[in-house]
Amino acid sequence: MDIRDIAERSGYGVGTVSRVINGQPNVSERARERILEVMGACGYEPNANARYLKMRSQSPVAAFVMGVGNRLFGDVLREIQSGLAREGEDLSVTYLDDDATEVSEAVRYQRARHPKGMVFLGGETSAFRDGFAPIEVPCVLVTSSAEGLGFPNLSSVTIDNEGAAAEAVGHLWGCGHRRIGVLGGSLEPGKVAAARVAGAARALAERGSALDLERDYEPCDYSEEGGYGAVRRLLERAPDVTAVFALGDVIAFGAVRAIRDLGRSVPEDLSVVGFDGTALARYAVPRITTIRQDTVALGERTVALLLRGMRGEGGCAHELVGYELVRQESVRRL
Amino acid sequence: MDIRDIAERSGYGVGTVSRVINGQPNVSERARERILEVMGACGYEPNANARYLKMRSQSPVAAFVMGVGNRLFGDVLREIQSGLAREGEDLSVTYLDDDATEVSEAVRYQRARHPKGMVFLGGETSAFRDGFAPIEVPCVLVTSSAEGLGFPNLSSVTIDNEGAAAEAVGHLWGCGHRRIGVLGGSLEPGKVAAARVAGAARALAERGSALDLERDYEPCDYSEEGGYGAVRRLLERAPDVTAVFALGDVIAFGAVRAIRDLGRSVPEDLSVVGFDGTALARYAVPRITTIRQDTVALGERTVALLLRGMRGEGGCAHELVGYELVRQESVRRL
DNA sequence: CTGAAAGCGCTTACAG
DNA sequence: CTGAAAGCGCTTACAG
What we know:
The structure is a homodimer.
Chain A: H1 3-10, H2 14-21, H3 29-42, H4 48-54, E1 61-66, H5 71-86, E2 91-96, H6 102-113, E3 118-121, H7 125-131, E4 139-142, E5 154-158, H8 161-174, E6 180-183, H9 192-206, H10 213-216, E7 217-218, H11 224-237, E8 243-246, H12 249-261, E9 271-273, H13 279-283, E10 290-293, H14 295-310, E11 318-320, E12 323-326
Chain A binds a DNA duplex through residues 2-4, 7, 12-16, 18-19, 21-22, 26-28, 31, 46-47, 49-57.
């Protein structure tokens, strides 16, 4: 069942059938109806490989997701997928290991598949600076900023990570905490953690204190296990912290578990703030105070910027979407 | 940069270059080396759309995942993706809404893309019975069984859901619980929940008791929110239950939260058992006793069965992989 | 072992 | 408004 069968059965040529498939003008109403009818009756679906081969070789939008366990990315992905679906665009998702380099994967993918566009969930700014040049299709980096990198086909959508982190730490300060530990990510410049740690440091500095990175910061990856180990290392080194700010809900969740295992409790003995605002924080015992990222806006803006690029409507943009400190049960007022 | 460029620069024909790309025999060692060298120097990557168009129109293996928030599926997906990668196969993931029908999506996808194979994470047996017939590529249903459906190209890999549920409920019984509620899923035949509820009923029956579906079972979807609402409805109707068996960790997690909000505690006032053995259960406060599904085996066997189908090595199979009751902190001995 | 040629199923100028 | 033809970048018999 291919386009020639449809042409034959409808009594038109393949060119006309193709125009109908693609909703192009210059087809009589009569022809359109007849062809649609035949296509429906045959359950015909055009061969995507052949289409993509001809249409300057484009396959569907590709999304690259760093890590599989991140609930935030799952939430955003759902938005992106449904937004794209409304425009008739498919989305093909590829998960990357934490140690895979998103950009070189994308370069390889572009050469082999020529996607219409690409989306990166959780990429690292510095990797883009170094490796993005060969990429020509419209791209959007989500949850990190690509501002200042100067690639005309790379947009980004993120919250103000530094501001959000500053607000989280400011909240702890306002509750009387003076010695605050920070958990998670890595300080390599260009990683999103760097912006958040900078925000934490700024919040302390503005209040006449300072973040002692050597002592009060403990990196780890974005997983329960990461948070579990990190808070233990931190507390061993800095037993006087009264609060920890985890750079992800999943880290906070692991940290709460570890604190309990140390025979201490949250928030009575130690306060915890997370980041992301996922269901994990909302349903944990205790509910975790966190920075909620607006996942709906993150997804919507990503789709809008991507479509703009795919339609050649020019220019990239770097947008900020909202966040909100959600006060729950894991912070104690001292 | 296409295959003709490589042919020209290496001094061979496109046929020979193609044979090198595909690792076929009948190429001299000299030609192979030279062509590989040129390809490397040019950073050439064959156009996947053109390849797939020729090779009986096959695009990469497609995975359909029901819902985005399911950690179990994320864990299995990671295994499948890395197993496939070892064989040089890509994986393209599509998330489906809970209300989307996996099989009709797959039928449409097959017609448009002609994937080499398809994997379903969390599909529903009855949907396959009714709609799978048009599908011709090798497929594997994961976490549900397709045994007895009689499709020669549909394998399945799952744990013994009924047995696992029986063991979970048996454990509660052994701890002295007599009135046990069951939370989650839907009883429509062919859904995985039906097998688990059947296991729960069997466990009670074997002990001279019975599961009163009307009173002691409360369906909900696989989410924290689902579990949160379901346990409240259950407790209102059956305030004398001393334990609940949730058909997913995420449901158990939501239920624990709801129980706390009702001013009761786990496991002192109410015991909870989950299902899946995800990080959620492992790090929750309290840690949730659960049935751990062997996600590594689930992924490995899926890849093995899929490759067997893709290589035409005949036959489908329906395999069971292991599970294990993980006793943690959410069950109290009465 | 190698190359020239046909063809996978489409889209898109180009004529009409 | 419509059709015939070229061509997207590959693979695969078929000759040699």
